[in-house]
Amino acid sequence: MIDVCLLGTGGMLPLPKRYLTSLLVRVEGQAVLIDCGEATQVSLHMTNFSPVDIGHILFTHYHGDHCSGLPGLLMTMANSGRTDPVHLWGVPGLEKMVKGLTVICEYLPFQLVFHEISAKEKTSFQAIGLDWTSCPVKHRVPCLAYSAYLPRGGRFDPARAKALDIPLPYWSRLQGGEVIEAEGRVYRPENVLGPERRGLRLSYATDCRPSAALVETVRDSDLLIAEGLYGDPAKQADAKSKGHMVYKEAAKLAKDAGVKELWLTHFSPAMMNPKEFLPETRAIFPETHAGFDRKTTTLRFSEDA
Amino acid sequence: MIDVCLLGTGGMLPLPKRYLTSLLVRVEGQAVLIDCGEATQVSLHMTNFSPVDIGHILFTHYHGDHCSGLPGLLMTMANSGRTDPVHLWGVPGLEKMVKGLTVICEYLPFQLVFHEISAKEKTSFQAIGLDWTSCPVKHRVPCLAYSAYLPRGGRFDPARAKALDIPLPYWSRLQGGEVIEAEGRVYRPENVLGPERRGLRLSYATDCRPSAALVETVRDSDLLIAEGLYGDPAKQADAKSKGHMVYKEAAKLAKDAGVKELWLTHFSPAMMNPKEFLPETRAIFPETHAGFDRKTTTLRFSEDA
After folding, report:
1. From 3.60.15.10, 3.40.50.20, 2.60.120.200, 3.30.70.330, which CATH number describes the B2-153+196-299 domain?
2. ipTM for this model
3. How confident is the model at residue B305 (pLDDT cuts 50, 70, 90)?
4. Which amino acids does the record list as binding Zn(2+) 2 (chains A, B) (predicted)?
């Protein structure tokens, strides 16, 4: 399962009740943070997630509202006792940005590991047990969307295990994919597991225009978190010129990609009530929800799969 | 008069209800900000002060909790329409710190003017009509306390003005210190004003140990805002080793300097209730108050002076 917490939902500047857009993703106690604007750590403090567990920080791009909270968060992670390395991911320019911001970090007791990802083509990498894909998107500066996939092994077949005379203590280890050698025999997972089942997909796309590549990247997501800088469809020209989406464009993206659920985020500070434009947005994609700070869910494998 | 707003009162890390220590000082619509940790702009947003009016930002030192909010604030000032220069003040290293942090500021429509102040001796400068003094203080890194003085001219003597046959329309201009030439005569303020009266003094000392130089700098302040990282006197050894003060030390500083009122700030995140240790602190200096985010006052010339 994947824990998801939308730490902030604001664009441009942090507001008292709407901090800057940032997403925490946790799998079995290890966490990835996507974007880290000013006050992200304040929102994190209000959750039951610990800053110590953050092993990876992914950036969509380097506009201030997506990275200004980095030095403060790193210092708080240091004060919280983290000593394991922290991996940083983003388009080229990452190291320059981080080294600029951390000029005020007197000492960090962990290594910063830089992973500069292509701003031109999709890239795959692994973090916290998830298979990540970055997808270059159209914004005013190089920018990435991210999609994470948690694979799911095949269903365990107890009848087959019995027929093969496999001792009971090995069943769960085989189910976990382990090859076991014991008592002169070799037990292999593929002998007792069915075909790989559908896993879980979580996608995050902010500060971007829709594109065919983005649709493919987020296809079949269980949850897509996407920006809706403006709710008002009249703002579409503005959104286009600034490299952003209005609600309806995010909804069409969700529909085209066949996702299960859409959370909107990165709201303009001028938009007082992000729910105002939901009805017409749901006419395009019914499972659209307005994000809010610390909106949280757990994505689980379906029982019947 | 001087408007004073303690935007935050936390040390080390911003908490949901206690942002990092920062002070806004405003005189006739122009503002100075002292220190700018992460989320300072969020607290500012909750006040009736505008980010556009901030013409000067003073730093005590460059530990992250005193400057991590700078890039976000500058971007918000830019988005709010400021185009006038912004003056930055602090010990040597200022420009390096600011240039590091502003790596994420794509474009600022105003000039940043750097004023590096001695970390070894007192310095005087002017900003927003106040006479400022910086005083090097003992901390783990070079650090400054600041004291601001608003001078007050002499009392206008109407009987003397009448006796000198000065036309009524010139009275207020003379009171304001203007020399007026009119109808072949010269009218001088010193002819109708008494001796200069006591002005107003506001002082700010955080992240420091007490010292004789600091006592002299903040002497006779109408309001001293000083750090009390710890309330518990048992923490004094900790405070000393880290270059901080416990409440009682701040109270003794206030008493020794003969200030009128003391506000404590820069509380340890571990201290849940900053008011807990006030009774024993007031035994040393009765006019001690625990700061809280957006504690606000206006210092006014006394009516009877």
Report:
1. 3.60.15.10
2. 0.90
3. low
4. 65-66, 207, 266
B14 touches chain A (CB under 8 A): yes
**Which pLDDT tens digit goes with each residue over B67-114?**
999 999 999 999 999 999 999 999 999 999 999 999 999 899 999 999
| Mutant choice from A104, A106, A242 vs B, greatest count of B C-beta within 10 A | A104
CA dist A247 → A211, A223, A284, B58, B150 (Å): 15, 16, 10, 41, 52
Domain boundaries, chain B: 2-153+196-299, 154-195
Residue B176 has pLDDT above 90, yes or no: no
Pick the CATH number of A2-153+199-299 from 3.60.15.10, 3.30.43.10, 3.60.20.30, 2.160.10.10: 3.60.15.10
Interface touch B103/A101, C-beta < 8 Å = yes
Under an 8 A CB cutoff, do B103 and A106 touch?
Answer: no
Within a 13 Å sphere around the CA of A63, how many CA atoms are in the beta-carbon half? 21
pTM (two decimals): 0.92
Residues A108-161: tens digit of each pLDDT: 999 999 999 999 999 999 999 999 999 999 999 999 999 999 999 899 999 999
Pairing of strands B295-299, B2-8: antiparallel
Chain B: nearest CA to A272, how far in angstroms? 15
